[in-house]
Predict the structure.
Amino acid sequence: MSFLRRRILPLLAASAIALTSVPAGAETLMEALGMAYQNNSSLNLSRAGVRVTDEDVAIAKSGLRPRIQGTGSFSIENREGDEIRAGRFGISLRQPIFDGFQTHNNVRAAEAQVRAAVAGLRNEELNTLFDAADTYMTVIRDRRIAALREQNLEFLQEQVRAARSRLEVGEGTRTDLAQAEASRQAAQAQLSAARAAVEASEAQYRQLVGQEPGALQMPSPLTSLLPSSLDQALAIGLAEHPAIAGREHEVDAAAFAVKSAEGALLPNVSANASVERSYTDPTTTPGADNTTDSATIGLSLTVPIYQGGETSARVRRSKESLGRARINVDVSRDQVRNAVTSAWAQYRAAVESVAANRETVSAAQLALEGVIEERNVGQRTTLDVLDAQEDVINAQIDLATAQSNVVSASYAIASAIGRLSSSRLGLNVASYKPEEHYNAVKDKWFGLRTPDGR
């Protein structure tokens, strides 16, 4: 359930970015996140895992509940030619009274594990929603890059045609044509790679969201959930991130496990009762009353003295597990602090990156137009035009990447501080409530059906 297996982008959105034109009916990011929240298989797997953990509470509570069982036996014996048939049937009851507080502590430990599992589920929701948002933006970015690569190829094809025409009329050289043709072939390879990247990101989108990506709408950064300062972000992350809360609940569970292990050194008391009927085939002893009824009731006391060192080893092991769980809390705090600080440190760089890339695109386009004009009057070469076009396409790709990163980063920060949830995002979905299943099974004494009827 650790959030570290999820990457945290180092960019943070602080201002709105320019939105591209969107076709009517385009799929929004909130719609994609809602589908991921409902359909993501990894998230549903985590929900199933919490339901499995819920049953541990009912199992732990059974430690002080009565045990009732029926017994029966039947035998045939041949004794000196006589066949003797005998049977015995009965029912017994065992009611634990005192088990060294083991059941009490096992229940508390199981309840703490349920809380840890719920926190782990919450962390999985954070990761899933962030991954879905990041992949949504990756699809938009890769599609935009592929479109730019296609436009670049069209431009270079025109340059090849122009270079060939100039060569035919004696105004160009074979070198110019070869340079234009080499750039066109390189652009073709770049376009193929860009299209492959689109297919890969769309496949990732299908895995996370549960359906094919349609026309995706460029969203705005998630500024509404972002803190106003780094100190505030750190305080929120350390106080609210479910990864830390889950580790703290694991500490509680480990502490109760220590007490339960120590309880094995205390006496055990239980009440026992049984009713039994035994009989012998009357044909072997005519006239005799061959049926016997019996009933017993009593108390049983067991005092542990020495168990070969096993109980002591279990106590020591549980104490070491408690120490490890406490260290794990510190590890999670360090991870959250590092993730939030690292992302926040790139705040100004992200804003400046978008603004700078816009200026770069404008300047590169202006430079390209000038180089083309100068080439037409013989002051520049075809290679100069190709270099200028490469500057333009690189600047446009950098801008598309920066715009995508800004939005993804805003969701990364919200995830890092533990505030990326369906309720805070206002997703149009029914929130999953793990407490409903827990309340349905925690006090169940019998029944094989699960709450959903299986």
Summary: The longest strand covers residues 82-98. Confidence is low (pLDDT under 50) at residues 1-25.
